[in-house]
Amino acid sequence: MKITGISTATKADEDLDWEVVIVGGGPAGMTAAIYTARYGLKTLLLESAVLGGAQATSPAIENYPGFKFITGIDLASRMKEQVQATGAKIREITEVKSITRANGNSGDFILETRRGNYTAKAVIFATGGGHRRLNAPGEEEYTGRGISYCATCDGPLFRNKKVVVIGGGNTAAVEAVYL
Ligand SMILES: Cc1cc2nc3c(=O)[nH]c(=O)nc-3n(C[C@H](O)[C@H](O)[C@H](O)COP(=O)(O)OP(=O)(O)OC[C@H]3O[C@@H](n4cnc5c(N)ncnc54)[C@H](O)[C@@H]3O)c2cc1C
Fold first, then answer.
1. In the annotation, is 154 catalytic?
2. Residue nearest atom 3 in ligand 1 by C-alpha distance
3. Which among 141, 153, 154, 175 is the best mutation to test ligand 1's pocket, defined by most ligand atoms within 8 Å of the CB?
4. What is the mean pLDDT of residues 128-145?
5. Which domain, by its residues, includes 174?
6. 132: in domain
7. For the residues of 53-105, what is the DSSP string, one character each?
């Protein structure tokens, strides 16, 4: 995503004048939407895929208070229902391509997407992070079915089993100690 202070985007006729636009519909973005909408701010949540974020790929979540066990998809859809109930608007399959500002650096933010432009007084980034992948054969196929990137999330699912930690840095050492 490109962020500049130069106004290059043009305003569309619709979807202008949001008080807050949140970029990213994972748990962080959905939480932000619940807060800003409940606070009475006109809120729009933009997500490049469907709401849920990284958790939605998890077959089992056992460390979220209130749920002894829930699949990532189910947790994501409950979060989405909660966002909808606040009145915040959601646009899925809407990737933010660039952000500029009207009137030089002093005007509203203009968020450019393939579905049009949106303007906002404030923008919250909740675009998440990514894991550094090994790019080994089978890695993608078995992610969530034996391959994991988070010991505190998934370690207990492999209790009494032999696990291998790949990596030699601080994070790998911390995960190995935890496991
Ligand atoms: C397989 C797996 C299992 C997991 N299991 C657990 C678990 O059991 N317990 C636990 O606590 N955590 C677990 N996690 C971690 C948890 O999913 C993450 O900590 C959490 O999703 C982070 O939330 P986030 O909202 O910050 O980011 P993300 O979930 O990464 O959400 C960011 C969102 O932003 C969107 N986005 C990015 N760029 C743009 C853009 N330009 N325009 C619009 N949208 C954009 C992305 O599509 C994404 O949906 C797991 C993660 C994975 C991958």
1. yes
2. 58
3. 153
4. 91
5. 139-178
6. no
7. GGGGG-S-B--STT-SSB-HHHHHHHHHHHHHHHT-EEE-S----EEEESTTT
